[in-house]
Amino acid sequence: MMNNLKLEIVSAHKSMYSGEIKFVVVPGEEGELGVYPNHAPLITRIKPGELKFKNTENEDVVIVVAGGILEVQPNLVTVLADSAIRATDIDEERSKVAKQNAESIIKNNKENIDLAKAHAELAFAIAELSAIKKLRGKK
Predict the structure, then answer these.
(1) In the chain, at which end, N or C, are there fewer CB atoms within 10 A of the end residue's CB?
(2) From CA 25, how far away is CA 99, in angstroms rounded?
(3) Number of helical (H) and strand (E) elements in the chain, helices listed first
(4) What is the pTM for the complete model shown?
(5) Alpha-carbon distance 85 to 94, whole Å?
(6) Angle subtended at Cα 115 by Cα 44 and Cα 101, rounded to the nearest 5 degrees
(7) What's the first-to-final CA gap in the chain, in angstroms?
(8) Averaged pLDDT of the chain
(9) Residue 54 to residues 72, 118, 123: CA-CA distances in angstroms?
């Protein structure tokens, strides 16, 4: 137990992961943030990107998050994600369409209506597509 920490990843829709891990790397607003057991406590915002961790079976797991909040306690990491999906569950075509739709809204928007939402959706779609590309590279 001393060499592991507990990770809880919860999105607005469901619990994405709950279990023991060796370490986690989270897309922080200022860059990637690595957390190992006995880390100093902190709370920070996270940006859309890939959350990566190594489970106790030494498997690398990637979950794409659309932003949210990270809370770190010495042996517990909690991620409250706006939205999250396992890299292995991403639908590439849906991600491409979402990216194109968000880009279109941003390009053609004259009144700034839902511009922030479109930027967030674009960042999430880009993170999903990046995760798929990396996943395919490992096969």
Answers:
(1) C
(2) 25
(3) 2, 7
(4) 0.78
(5) 13
(6) 105
(7) 32
(8) 87
(9) 17, 32, 24
Mean pLDDT (whole number) for 109-121: 73
pLDDT at residue 127, rounded to an integer: 85
From 65-69, 87-91, 109-113, 133-137, the region with the lowest mean pLDDT: 109-113
Amino acid at 91: D
How long is the chain?
Answer: 139
CA separation for the pair 85, 3 (Å, rounded)? 27
The residue written with tokens 């490992």 in the block is 138
Closest CA to 78 of 6, 5, 8, 22: 8
- Which of 60, 69, 64, 68 shows the shortest CA–CA distance to 85? 64
Mean pLDDT value of segment 54-72: 93
Residue 1 has a pLDDT of: 43
Q: Collapsing DSSP states into helix, strand and coil, what is residue 87?
A: helix
